[in-house]
Structures
1.
Amino acid sequence: MNVQHYYNAASKADGYGGLIFYLVVILSISLLVFTGPKAEAWLHPSLIVLVALAIACTVVTAISQTEGNRILRATQLSDAFGAGVGEKPRDDYYNNVLPRTARRLAATTLENTLFTKEILLKMLVKERIKIGIYVIVLLILMICRQTPTGWLLVLAQTLFSADVILKWIRLERFSMRTNRVYAQLEQFFLQKGDTDNPNDMALMLSAFTDYECAKDEAVIPLDQNIFERLNPVVSKQWQEMQQRLNIGG
């Protein structure tokens, strides 16, 4: 399997996991609405099966995403240094004309962080809106004295479950670390960093490894639809940035 196969598998598993999460919420609410032994007889087993499937989706997402990251990392190193340690990328895959040196790796990582930070920004808007709606609804129901305790428990469990809160935290941290690496590498090129200088080389390698560790820590597939929508605009930004930072010039 190549890198795209792994990323597609991670994206599909993540999507199925999100769908299962909402099914669990619906069934949990159904337990409050449809009381009685008959309803519980099929709702409880269904919930157990869905939870097991959700765990499986999380595992598949994590394994596929990190494996895809590993293959892509090897490809980037092969492209930067001309070493045969990874798959050969398409000729037009990396959009810089620098020779095969550590400086080329820095430019590739800068381009990657530019795209990633813009995609994460859009993904975070959706995630923050979802979290905000949950919090507002929960607060309103807590204020309303007529609200049954069972409803509050379901909403609180939904809000503070791993599917909502932890994913949002991972997205926020991924975005923060990506922006930090982007700023470091932009500064590297602004100051005309020289990879023959040990200090500059250490700075560049630190930025590269920090970004790669951030991807593996987050294990969150980037939204392909957002990428395709932003690609023309961000690609233009990258072309302008190459001229501004004299990358390949």
Note: The mean pLDDT is 85.
2.
Amino acid sequence: MEQGEPPSMLILVLGLASATLLVIVAGYVLYCQRRVSGYESKDIESSEHKEEEVALKEDLMIFQGGEDLTICDILDAPGEVIGKSNYGTLYKALLQRSNKVRLLRFLRPVCTARGEELDELIQFLGRIRHPNLVPLLGFYTGPRGEKLLVHPFYRHGNLTQFIRGNRLFSCLLYF
């Protein structure tokens, strides 16, 4: 090797290091561009959802026996969780204005249908009256898609307690 000529091993190492650095910088730039464009698309999607939410409004369907229900009464009612399921949560709530205890069933959004199909089903369920069925008194739809079914509250327990519990005592309570 001559004095003025750099060693070939040094050139090879510097060339590989430069190429590696260039690939890392290019990868970082691409990552940043995708991230920024991802935020922009999310902003567009979230603005569309906000417009849909604004378009939605509160609605209360009232059925026989639920004439005293109001949206304010339902939303302001202090409640006690009495049960949870895959479909929603049950609350025992005291409606302030009417001073009546009602059962509020909050339905999880993923467990409900949307649109006219749900409205038709709720209208059908609200019209059903039978001595062996708990009547539907009202159905609330909120601005963010929340849904509440309103039923009368029966203090004697539930069907599971009636079936599995002391049958004689349970029968006496219902008669």
Note: Residues 47-55 have pLDDT under 50 and may be disordered.
3.
Amino acid sequence: MRFLVFVRRQNGRRDSSRGQLPETLPCAPEVPQLDPATRAASEPHPRRVGEANRLLCQGMSGSSRVRSRSNTAHTPGSPQAVAFAGLAAAFEVYVDVNWSRHFREVGGLPHVKVRKAVIPAAGLGTRFLPASKAQPKEMVPVVDKPAIQYVVEEAARAGLQDILIVIGRGKYAIEDHFDRSWELEGLLNDKGDDERLDEVRSISDMADIHYIRQKMPLGLGHAVGVAEQHVGDEPFAVLLGDDLIGEQETLLGDMVDAFNRHQTSVVAAMEVEKSQISAYGVVAPGEEVEPGLFQLTDIIEKPEPDEAPSNLAVIGRYVLHPDIFAALRVTEPGAKNEIQLSDALKRLVDEPDGTGVLAHRFTGKRYDVGEKNGYLRATVELAAAREDMGPEFVEFLRQFVTGMDRSEDGP
């Protein structure tokens, strides 16, 4: 039910107390207490407690006129007015508490915390042809889960429950995978296969997943820009589906924590061989802000090995300040007529009064499943680490390698 509350102040006073929510409201001794759940939820946000008290007091004293959605006026001070005012007060506290979960005050300014993630998944997957010709490359299974499920699980582990997947035409299988499958669930339920039933249901319950279409494959920067309306004026993570991070790693959570501390964009960077450097965006690290976290002084997209400022390559994890959208809007298309995210990040680095960019040095497990050797390595290592299949699979690998060595040695 929705309410319109028209308030005119009379003798009621605004409670500006910064302490705990009082057991009873100060306007009249007979005013009922707020229920414990509302009181507990309100305690961290006392600035809203005064508003809730005021609405309740005015409902009791007759200084409010409350109308329901049906435009029915209730007599000031009547039980109906008290009920509507009380619900309106509780609603205000509820809205403020839920909104304020993602904000805290630092120096009087809002300190915004990361709660959203964007997963670009609109690419054509040409590196993985012919497997990606008729199915999204993100749906190619790594052991027994599609690659994109590992990425969504990583975002959920980092506490990011609002996920936007940027898809292109022909990618409906991604939407179907994260949706409920009533027929399959009914079949598993009838068979009494509770283990698989729980596993299937957990896929659609792990996060709130939304979709938007990138109409043309115009580069990673363009795909991120497509997410602007969903993200709004909030920081957000970007996770590329080609990069799988080891399930025991805390990379994304560490990057989110770094953003929350410094309120500036953070990119993940990893040392790569010189021969591979031209396949990545490469960063020039500056001052070390804290262990493993560096201020960026430059970022270059796919440089020649001899021109690279370092061997630190940007991998597919970013936590971005919303200023990136303004930078993307003025970033010109580069090679292949694509808008590169690294070019927009360079604008943030070069902006004299901007937020800058930090690089988080990552030394853990990472797999590039967008290319075939990386995909095979990921499949083998992840399968070997599984408790349910690892021991038997590792024994097979030992026998296989031993057989290969014997065949090379000859009779």
Note: Confidence is low (pLDDT under 50) at residues 1-74, 88-109.
4.
Amino acid sequence: MLKRRKRSGGYPSNHRDSHRRRTPHHLNTHRRKSRTSTTLNHVMAPSKDKENGTKDKEKRECSDKMSRGGECDTKNNETNKVESNGGTKRGGEKMEVDTDQSSKSSKRSWTQKICDLVKTVHSFESKSLRRNECVPFIINDTQVGLVLPEVLQKLEFHNDIFFVVRDLLTNRVRYVTMATDLEDRKKRSVQFSNVMRDWKDRDLFPALRSWRNETLQVKVGFAGESYLDVEKSACCLFGFKTYGVHVNGYVRNDSGDVYMWIARRSKTKPTYPGKLDNTVAGGISCEEGVLKTVIRECKEEAGIPEKLSSAARPAGTISYFTETEMGLYPETQFVFDLELPRSFEPTNTDDEVSDYYLLPIKEVKELIATNEFKPNSALVLLDFFLRHGAIDPDTEPNYINFTQGCRRKLPY
């Protein structure tokens, strides 16, 4: 929960609201009935173009204190913090992090928790029994997916569209494919969509309750041939690979310290509602390129104009294979870093994000080890920390494990 008040209108001047309380730069804890929460307070050095008359001496003293891990004096210089106003958070409020779950493992180190995160994101790798129960989905002699056993049972009722191929001796299912008369992508897509809509109307699978009206291409590699267009919510039932973009939006203060814009997902989102997320993230739809998706998602989710988002720097890809109660998620994310002006405030325009927070990189690093973050987004941030030197290879015993955890190869 975040205490709400009116926005301060960006980075406040040195004299504005100086009567308000000082915000300490450390963790405060308080008890609320049986629930324990941790309050994070965030301090950001003021932007040069927003100080409105602050004396040079005061600016230097503030920067010096921050570089030593101290605080700026809020009597003469109100610092920029996280604020609640239905969108961007800035101006002096506190973000509460629920520690109900993580308190049970409070004695576990950050390293141990991140090892658990890597295992969670790659959960399908560790489930050999479940993996053996799934059967390949084949199109044109090429594997493009894995069919869950519960899905296989339903497919056999649509034998005019799907062929379930069995071993002649053991009667064991070898693979699933589509009817031979569906020889092109368009015909396959139409028939596949009809079946998925029928399943949705009959509420056969929970995953289809979050129907998106957004189609994704099914193909072997990102640059490969497209075999099928599928509703996004149905991809997990067949283990179809999907592709998306994640953008790490960040700013630097006068001392060069990195602060990251972190989004909180809307509570109405069908997946991971209310969890923390990257600045911008979204799937690559049919016929849409990577950079075009970045620009579109930046505009829709964070109100970032194209003149800023077009400067996003590609930083490689991250792949993982996760299994949840909904289905299978073999995914590859194209990662981008985007340094934003300190005067810019993200503002959501499509109701997919409830809040934005500007947090020091050290606090983001701690947060990804909690249950607050969407797991795959936490992995993207882990990759950001590795690339930007926020994790020391000499002191982190699992440095190689973390690096390899961000660079898995998908099985098909």
Note: Residues 63 and 255 are 7 Å apart (CA to CA).
